[in-house]
Amino acid sequence: MAFNKEPSFQHGQAAKTAVLYCNLGTPSAPTAPALRKYLAEFLGDSRVVEIPKPIWWLILHGIILRVRPKKSAAKYASIWTEGGSPLKVFTEQQAQSLGTALQERGHSVTVRYAMRYGQPSIPAQLSALKAEGVQRVLIVPAYPQYSGTTTASVFDAVYRWGLKTRLVPEMRFVNRYHDDPRYIAALAQTVREHWATHGQAEKLVMSFHGVPERTLQLGDPYHCECMKTGRLLAEALGLSKDQYKLTFQSRFGKAKWLEPYTEPTLIAMAQQGVKKVDVICPGFTSDCLETLEEIQQEAQEAFLHAGGEGFSYISCLNNHAQWIEALADISLGHMQGWDLSAPDAKALAASRERALAHGAKN
Ligand SMILES: C=CC1=C(C)c2cc3[nH]c(cc4nc(cc5[nH]c(cc1n2)c(C)c5CCC(=O)O)C(CCC(=O)O)=C4C)c(C)c3C=C
Ligand SMILES: [Fe+2]
Ligand SMILES: [Fe+2]
């Protein structure tokens, strides 16, 4: 096995630290060819679709990648911004803001982002950090709730890169922050701010991305972690059980996914006489296709069509200052014991130590 080329080893280098904030990824353009490339990588990941590879390969390449790219491209086109895909725009902003927040707290930490599927890829970003002399990396997935389909897939990409690397940096991994008080407080703050400007609806619907129900039976903690986030958010907002509803969206394929499904629940609510709903997607740290198109456009239309009168979508955490501070706290919590002082402070300390040792000898 060949290992990636290493830069020459340097003695006495101060250990630099980095945070790699990893999100799902998104197509490079709202076009069918770009979608085909993105979906082939995403849906070709056996963490995401757990069907025996040869059978799934035939279905994916023979059917799905012939039909879905065109349909999905049209959906992406409806949310595309000047800066590109919203997921990319927000992820980039979050990484930059996190870097600034850590710097303002006096820590010397490089912050970069990477995408599990598409660009900038996890291996490319890890290699770039190493080339900059980074020796310690904290992997922070953009997913508050752990799932094998998402969080573990990010870790797979890191491990795979490590398998080809001679001098592996010291690594730490954040598995989850679904019940972190600072994440919950940031979510609650976005809801309160929304209520302050738009008023409070009769019900708050908390819609999480779904996963196949089978993964729950196989031991994936995702469902339980979503439930806990929902309960804690409701508690933080002082909502009783009949004032909120937790649902799962984005079903893919024919299998049973986690229930209740978001859109049918909203339709049933409207039919039962609920006039106004607020909808939040707490499992998504950035707005993306699944929130802006599937919820803000599609689910809204379905609710209003079924007799609802008001549908108010609450934006994701995105670049909210309280979320960035929460992310800084969470990251620092996982970097305990790592010296995060600035390189010149480290050099000064080293030269003081040398002077002391010199003095002691004479
Ligand atoms: C937030 C956590 C996510 C989990 C868990 C998750 C599981 C999961 N997703 C699919 C299939 C698709 N997801 C798609 C988009 C998408 N998914 C997430 C997040 C989670 N997915 C995000 C943030 C996005 C949006 C990306 C963007 O570019 O904005 C898509 C692609 C869109 C489409 O073609 O409709 C698919 C497909 C599965 C099968 C799965 C778990 C098994
Ligand atoms: Fe997804
Ligand atoms: Fe979707």
Automatic annotation (TrEMBL):
InterPro entries: Ferrochelatase, Ferrochelatase_AS, Ferrochelatase_C, Ferrochelatase_N. GO terms for cellular component: cytoplasm. Its main location: cytoplasm. PROSITE patterns: FERROCHELATASE. GO terms for molecular function: ferrochelatase activity; metal ion binding. It comes from Limnohabitans parvus II-B4. Signal peptide: none annotated. It catalyses: Fe-coproporphyrin III + 2 H(+) = coproporphyrin III + Fe(2+); heme b + 2 H(+) = protoporphyrin IX + Fe(2+). PANTHER family: FERROCHELATASE, FERROCHELATASE, MITOCHONDRIAL. Gene3D superfamilies: 3.40.50.1400. Pfam families: Ferrochelatase (PF00762). Catalyzes the ferrous insertion into protoporphyrin IX. Fe(2+) binds at residues 209, 290. GO terms for biological process: heme biosynthetic process. This is Ferrochelatase. Its EC number is 4.98.1.1. Pathway: Porphyrin-containing compound metabolism; protoheme biosynthesis; protoheme from protoporphyrin-IX: step 1/1. Belongs to the ferrochelatase family. It is found in: Cytoplasm. Keywords: Cytoplasm, Heme biosynthesis, Iron, Lyase, Metal-binding, Porphyrin biosynthesis.
